[in-house]
Amino acid sequence: MLETDHFLDIDDLATDELHAVLDRAAAIKAGEDDTELPDHTLGMLFEKPSTRTRISFETGMTQLGGHAIFLGPDDIQLGHGEPLSDTSRVLSRYVDAVMARLFDHEDLLEIAEYSDVPVVNGLTDDAHPCQTLADLLTIQEAFGGFEDVQAAWVGDGNNVGQSFVIGAAMVGLDLTVATPDGYGMSEDVLDQAEAIGHPPTVVDDPAEAVADADVVYTDVWISMGQEDQREEKLAAFEGYQVNEELLSDSDAQVMHCLPAHRGEEITHDVLESDRALVWDQAENRLHAQKGLLVELLDA
Ligand code: CP
Ligand code: NVA
């Protein structure tokens, strides 16, 4: 049973709850926990496209004996002027939980405010906590825990990075962040990590970030909705690509939430190398979210 009603960012969980969700996910993955959610329905609101989030939630609900409904922007009246507050109140009269992928994080807060059932963040412009659950599960599996593991984030201080910074602080994972000037993690996020007591080290130089890293994490430079910033961001991120040259003195493993833009933030060779944890990371979305759903719905 979690204290929180909703999962809007990773620190909606207390630290012991975060570990409990990760352990539950690992047990589900290992076939040691066969908890089900029969007759439960998850409503999935999508303003942006998705491969992993949609398929892992939908498959996860099926595997738990429940059901998920995909609600794209053109499928429901929300896309035709019905307010978020009305949509949320109506949805929560039907379904047992709502997962939403939205642009504006404030819109997610509004959905949560009007929802009588748990709301899960499936990515907003500011945060991607379900990804962080899978990321931490992947690191826990690959390194046997978080103690003495050095992680590096190289690239954009974006939604995936911001939730990862907070999650890393919560589990005590040492993290160095290398972001270009003007594209760092928000001050709020860095303050949250500081308040938790395990803030990242922030540097400019990707080589400095990866020097002692056991695992290097990157994500796209141009996130969904930022397509008009493409030229300026490509210029700003020069030198931040995760490639064999950057990793030449390192045996670090590499993470990416996917989808990847090969040749931009990461090279084809690194993604296809033995360093890449990305396929386990993608699979772990399924297990991590099943762990979250059973904890959130108290099953
Ligand atoms: N990592 C992730 O959220 O992928 P999708 O955009 O495919 O859901
Ligand atoms: N930062 C990326 C993550 C996609 C899963 C985006 O928001 O587009």
Automatic annotation (TrEMBL):
Cytoplasm in keyword set: yes
The Aspartate/ornithine carbamoyltransferase Asp/Orn-binding domain, residue ranges: 148-294
EC numbers on record: 2.1.3.3
A GO term, aspect molecular function: ornithine carbamoyltransferase activity
Transferase found in the keyword field: yes
GO BP term (any one): L-arginine biosynthetic process via ornithine
HAMAP family: OTCase
Family assignment from sequence similarity: Belongs to the aspartate/ornithine carbamoyltransferase superfamily. OTCase family.
Protein name: Ornithine carbamoyltransferase
Source organism of the structure: Halobellus rubicundus
